[in-house]
Amino acid sequence: MDEVQVVVAHSERATLRVGDVFLKVDGDPGNLEVEVEAMRLAPVPTPEVLWRKPNVLALAAVRGAALGRLGEPSPASPDAWAAAGAAVRKLHEAPLPPWSAPTSEEIGAKLDGECEWLIANGVLPADLVIRNREVAELAFRPWEPVFAHGDLQITHVFTEGDEVTGIIDWSEASKGDPLNDLAIMTLGHEECLDDLLAGYGTDVDVDVIRAWWSLRSLQASRWLIEHGFDPNEPGAEFDVLRAAYERS
């Protein structure tokens, strides 16, 4: 009998694995609707949908292994990272999905609220938060929206050899900033950025990617803390913010 493995679980959603089947349980069925439609539209490998109920989605496991984990060196080869970059470029060149992400104004307002919370609660030194907020401002430049994954963590991109075998967790997919996807993939793995961009195949402003590293880390920290995760683990969000502070 296959054991039930809890992949992730918190108050909003949970993912379980039973053999080669993943069960995603979400308190908001709209998230699963977006995920299924995004996978249908995306021109890249995605998991097979086995069945769906209002709050539960069953997906087949994809071949291969994730590009890596936050806080650990990536085991994937430079060619695998380049293949991932090419897959992301293919996604970004696809027709736009019919739904939108938050506007820059909404993102900026939320970011300011998160910075205020981090300082008011003594979670991080004020000067570190303020400097990273300044770095993040560059992300709010004009940009052309693309079909964006929206949560393209390296644990969501699977490869086998030098082939991308699947991209998972599409509930945040929307019209979005292409450099946000590239930034999320390389958060805490700056050493892999050149290989990713070699496959992505276009001129990219690395300073904007760094801005998104700061933005993402500032914006995610409270959520991580409140849902039982630790952004202060080695290589995680707090280390990203400290590196940006030292770089500046």
Automatic annotation (TrEMBL):
Residues 42-205 form the Aminoglycoside phosphotransferase domain. Keywords: Kinase, Transferase. InterPro entries: Aminoglycoside_PTrfase, Kinase-like_dom_sf. Pfam families: APH. SUPFAM superfamilies: Protein kinase-like (PK-like) (SSF56112). One of its GO terms (molecular function) is kinase activity. It comes from the Bacteria. The keyword Signal does not apply. This is Aminoglycoside phosphotransferase (APT) family kinase protein. It comes from Kribbella aluminosa.
